[in-house]
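Kindly review this record before class:
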Amino acid sequence: MCGRFATGLIAGHLDTANWLDIERDAPPPDWAADSTGGWGHAGGAPSADRLDVMPAGAWPAPSWNVAPTQRVAIVVPGDGEEAPRRVLAARWGLVPRWWRKPLAELKASTFNARSEEAYGKPMFRDAWKHGRCLVPALGYYEWTGKAGAKTPWFVAPQTNRPGLVFAGLWAEAAVDGARLTSFTILTTAANEATKHLHPRAPVVLEEADWADWLAGWAGEALMAPLDAGRTTVSEVGRDVGNVRHDRPDLIEPVGLGL
């Protein structure tokens, strides 16, 4: 399960750009809106109200409390075999490219997809074949306890890298008269360090497997959680339970951890 996570990654930061092998100042996609609001080759500044893209080189602002339907940075393959990967701003909650109804009519929960089933589910199977992405993050949150008195926990890797990478699926769809970029995070059985929090966990890709995942050359064999030996679980403050709170100290430990 991954119902809330932290990105905290800064657009254009050299360490992050090198780690993810991305273009630091990538141009907008070639379907960016023109000055009349139509669809065509990029010719004018895209409208955030009409189009789910951002200016060249821009990412969504860093967040330490990402919730479903919010937009974050995802990483997708470059336009050529040797091209650096691209960063897109995407809505968390996948809308398949064949969806043509208003977004309000999409009642299914699509912010997570079970890795054991996604390849065969109508909502995800097209993206499984053609829409692999990386979702960079600092870690994710889980809660334990009874309603009204839940304890939040932050799950993160022990690493000197900028963070970790979730396995994701993404799509572009024409929704409500605009182009929408969206994604989902794949989940699998939790590891020994986190199964007491929740039986499911997001799929975390090893750096050596990123290229194969993006190219569609690998699937079920990579569907594993964060390695238990490199997992830290820390109790954090209850402010994270309210999505209006979004600041770096949300991921700081307040207890002894597990």
Residues 17 and 223 are 25 Å apart (CA to CA).
